[in-house]
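Dear Dr. L.,

I hope this message finds you well. Following up on our conversation about the binding site, I have prepared a predicted three-dimensional model of the protein together with NAP. For your records, I am including the exact sequence and ligand specification that went into the calculation, followed by the structure tokens. Please feel free to forward this to your student if that is useful.
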Amino acid sequence: MNKKTGTKGARLNINSYLWLIKPTHNTFFIMGLLTGKVALITGATRGIGRAIATKYATEGANIAFTYLSSEEAAQSLVAELEGLGVKAIGYRSDAASYDQAHTLVAEVQKEFGKIDILVHNAGITRDTLLMRMGEEMWDAVINTNLKSAYNITHAITSVMARQRSGSIIYMSSVVGLGGNAGQANYAASKAGLIALAKSVAKELGARGVRANCIAPGFIQTDMTAVLSDDIKASFVENISLRRAGTPEDVAGVALFLGSDMSAYVTGQTIACCGGMRG
Ligand code: NAP
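The resulting structure of the complex is given below.
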């Protein structure tokens, strides 16, 4: 008998952040950091959003997520999350649409009964120098990245305020902190998310609702796969840890902000960039 875990011979793989409670005979109830919570994640079929969905599910959260067009990826994600033992539903919902955001929140609330965590992660780029940036490039990025945050926050505010709890996480970017040539639209949208989080934190703090941002640096996903090898190499040279980030790196920060470990953290932006120099 292993006195520490109470198992008979069997080895239990315990992640440092899993809590074991109440061992009875050979049975354990293993609780994740998000057990019993419901998370809504926008744009989770790929990249960072997908990594957050699987990380949250591994920690016991039931998952509602959105996508725009990746139907097959959405189905495979539902299967993957259900395989982790949680409830999962994917919704095709355009983040840029006010009406679709409100319908989405109403449906998730009806299906899951509550929403504890919102990760607003959906985002796009339309990069070029400002002088060449057409109005449609500006509007597409602002609508998908920033107005979308207003859409879904406006929809979810009453749900979380009624619950008197909730954690809202906006996926910003280091370029929202420092700006970037060729990304004026994207940088402006990501800076807007930082100010939005600070404002929501002030408006809803008294109701127990927190709002924070994550500012990823150079993360390996479809979004950055289009960059040339030279640009990728120059990014890495400028990163203290000398490597690109992974979606899982960002998911770790999202886990902290979504869980009660960050219960006293609100209105903040956490950079997840390997020490990228601006
Ligand atoms: P990605 O691989 O391009 O994935 C984007 C996700 O957003 C997909 O699931 C996509 O759905 C969804 N999406 C796009 N437009 C949408 C819309 N209008 N409505 C609903 N969903 C929509 O992107 P990523 O690299 O993982 O980035 C995720 C977030 O992190 C973005 O906000 C991005 O700006 C931010 N970020 C990324 C980096 C980086 O280096 N990768 C750095 C800083 C910040 P479909 O699959 O259906 O298209």
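In brief: DSSP finds nine helices and nine strands in the chain.

With kind regards,
A. P.
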